[in-house]
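Kindly go through the entry underneath: sequence plus C-alpha cells. Please state briefly how this chain folds according to its C-alpha cells.
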Amino acid sequence: MFKKIVAAILSWVLLIYFPAAAWGQGSTSQTQTKQEEEEDISGEKVEVIQTIDVKRGDTLWHIAEKYLEDPNRWPELLKYNKIDNPDLIHPGDKLKVPQWLVRKILREARFSFIQNRVEMKRKERDRWVPIGIGDPTGEGDDVKTGVNSSAELTLDEGSKIDISPRTTVKVSRLYTDLKTGGNRSSFKLDGGRLLAKVSKTERNSRFSIRTPTAVAAVSGTDFIVEVEEDRVTKVAVIDGSVQVAPSTGEEEEEEVLTSAVEVKAGQSVQVASGQMPLAPVKLPGPPAPLSPLPGSRVREDRVAFSWSRAEGAESYELEVSPNPDFDRIVLTQRTSGQDYKASLIPEGEYYWRLRSLNRDGFESVYSQVSKFATLSVPGVPTQLSSQQAFRIDKREVALSWSGVAKAASYGLEIAKDPNFAEVVVKDNPTATQYVVDILAKGPHYWRVKAISKDGIESEYSEASRMEIIDYGEIVLWGGIGVGVGVAAVIVILLLAK
C-alpha cells in the first residue's frame, strides 16, 4: 500500500515538472485546437469532440490549466485518451476532449506590421527575441518596442492594435469562452501607448486594456490608451465609447461595470494611481493653417508659420515634410502659441500640417496639408577696396567686392552717415565693382548686398568708411609741410654750431 502511495505522488510530481519532451521541434506558440463533430450510425449527432495538439513544453497539468481552467483536473484528460505514461507526452500528440468539458479555446494574434526592431518574450520564457511580420502571439506573451520601432497586431476577429515606440504590453487573455460564445481579449500596458481599433464584436465578447492605474473596456470602438512615466493613464476615444475605471490590480474586468466612467467619442480622460478618473474633456479640433499660403515662395531663413485657434487646445504640434505622406519629417515643433518662426528650412518644396493637443496631451486629427517652397538666400559679399579712399582732383573712386554664388545682382549704397539715413548713391550693379565719379567733400560710408534671381536678398556687408578731400587742401597742407620741414633743418644746423 505504501509503495502505491509513493508511486502516485511521484507520478503527480513528474506530471507537473516534466513537460512534453524538450527534444520536440517547433515554436512555443500557443496550443492550437480543432473541433470535431461525430455522428452515430443513424446519423444523429453525438457529443462534440475537441482535439488539442500538444506543443513543446506542454504537460497534462498545463493543458488542464489552459482548457479546463483547473490544473488539478488533469486526470479527466485520461478518460478520453489512451496515454501509456501520463508523465510523458510528446509534441505532435493529439488529445481528444469533449467540448462540454473544455471551458475555452485559446486564440492567436499575428503581427501585420513591424517597423525596426520589435521583440517578444514568450510565456514562461526569460529571453526576448526579435519578431517579424506574420509571427503569432498569444496569452502570456510580452511585446516591447524601442525608441524608433512600432508594430501592428491583428487579432483573429479583425481587431487591430497599433503599438507605439517605447511601449511594453502583455497579452493577458486571448480566448473564446465556450460557455457564452464570446471572445475575451485583454492586454496589460505597462508603459507607452496603444491605439486599439476594436471590431464590432458579438454579444458576450469583451475587449480591455489594463494599466497600472486604470482599466478601459469596450465591445467595439477605436480608442487610445497611454501610460506616462508618473503612471498616469490617459484614454482618448475616437469612435464609440469606452468604460474607464481605476485598476484594482486584479485580472478580472468586472469592476469596470460598477465603478466606470463612460468616455464618449471625441473625449479623453486621465486616471492617477489610486484615484477615480477625472471628468472627461473634449478632444480638440484641428487648427487651420494660415501662412505660408498654399503655393507661396518664401526665403529659407525666414519661414513664418501661423494658424487659427482650435477650441479645447492647450498646445499645437507643427510638422514639415518634403513629401505629402509625411514619411520623412524635417521639422517638428510644439508650442502653446499660434505661430512659429523657423530659423532655416533649406531650399526646396515642402508640405506642412498641424494638430492640437488638449489638457490630457491627446492630439486632434491633422489639419489640411498645405504646400510651400523655400528659396535659397545668397551669401554676404566681402568688400575688397581699401578702407580709406581719397578723391583727389575729381579723380574716380573704384569700389569692389567678392562675387557670391547664386547672386544675379548686388545692392550698393553710399551714404554720408554710418546709419545710412542720408544715402547719396543707390544702385544694383551686376558686376563686382563700381566706379563713383561725383562725391561731395567729407566722410562717406558704403555697403553692399547680394540679390538672387528670385529677388531674395542677403544681409548687407559691414559698412566701410572713405574720406573725400579736395586737391587744393592736399597742395596747401603739402606746402606747409615742406616749409616746416626746411625750417626745422635750419634750426638743427644753427644749434649744431
About this structure: The chain has five helices and 35 strands. Confidence is low (pLDDT under 50) at residues 1-46, 474-480. The domain at 107-282 is CATH 2.60.120.1440 (Jelly Rolls). Helices lie at 2-17, 60-67, 75-78, 255-259, 471-496.
